[in-house]
Design goal:
The chain has about 425 residues and is an alpha/beta fold. It has 12 helices and 18 strands. Helix 6 runs parallel beside helix 8 and helix 9 packs across helix 10.
Length: about 425
Amino acid sequence: MPRLVMKFGGTSVADLDRIKNAAHKVKQEVDNGFEVIVIVSAMSGKTNEMVGWVQETAPLYDAREYDAVVSSGENVTAGLMALTLQQIGVPARSWQGWQVPLKTTSAHGAARIEEIPTENLDAKFAEGMKVAVVAGFQGIADDGRITTLGRGGSDTTAVAFAAAFDAVRCDIYTDVDGIYTTDPRIVSNASKLKKISYEEMLELASLGAKVLQTRSVELAMRFKVPLRVLSSFDDDISMNAGTLVCDEEEIMENNVVNGVAFVRDEAKMTLVSVADRPGIAAAIFGPLADAGINVDMIVQNISEEGRTDMTFSCPVDQVLRAEKALNGAKDSGEINYHGLVSDKDVAKVSVVGIGMRSHVGVAKQMFDVLSREGVNIKVITTSEIKISVLVDRKYMELAVRALHDEFELEHAT
Ligand code: ADP
Ligand code: ASP
Ligand code: MG
């Protein structure tokens, strides 16, 4: 029998009525002839609440216990979904990550999936089970401890199951009816895309569009899993619904720019006057990596009299740890700088489009718009299919809207 993976995010399982609604969609696919693996998130708000409890209990918490706590929201919804399916006559049972077992690295809080053996679920499908409901976001490390895959990680669980079980498709049910040219909560005339390439979606996700966890798109691209995003609140679940993330060859016309993404809470840190010598970048970014800082953009100024400024960006909640790491490296004599300036009020805005590969002038157009709007650009980075800028946080939404207008994304398809 063909297999299908259906993932329901937090708002889609927020209460018993919503779980019922989701279960009916699952039943429809069973009636369509599929064996279904359902991946569920925790009810909306529950993971945040538990993260808060952990932080309040122990600010410098043991990540293994963090995972023990925050993974539990998915256990509740998995059991409730299996019960709801049974109530409407669908043979179903629930599985926690460790029961599958979904094996991961031991990087607690951000574990990576290593293996999903299929035997246990296969045996149950062979016995007539129609739906396996699996708790998303969680797995088990070699040492037997429970792990989680990072916030939004149920998307990644879903794609990994689709790859492991050779599913025809992975459907991600959420609170929007597809992938838009930008977050529709910020830009009301954002338009829904019919299709988007893996490459573009990967950039959008990693640049802040949290509709899919970045890692889930990476896996879908690597294992060629057709990935669809659609609303759990709409009745239509036929292939007309939602947005398909697929190979770029399947898309006839590519817009030059297909989306605008943003990250609100960034920080810009500058090391003033460091010695410009071979090895200086390694000496600075080594201790930052050891401290687990997610350094993003990096700019080194021109050198004058053997000294230079080094600027980088990172998430704003990592500034304290970054300062500590850099001051530590200074104290131990690994690096030497005259000042450390942290600007905690910046945001990153990016435009993404595969068409940029063959189309020049997008950067100029982007900078012109921002200048016209009076938005100062603090740092710029580019890749083949994206341009990102760091701007003052208070101008972030203005910049997103202006860029969305400039590239006529309200007409994108
Ligand atoms: P779930 O709980 O189902 O996993 P998320 O909140 O993680 O849902 O993701 C869905 C949200 O992603 C939407 O409500 C929307 O605000 C946001 N979002 C950000 N960028 C985009 C985009 N380009 N297209 C659609 N939604 C987006
Ligand atoms: N419940 C987890 C979170 O809120 C995982 C997920 O929903 O994807 O991050
Ligand atoms: Mg999500």
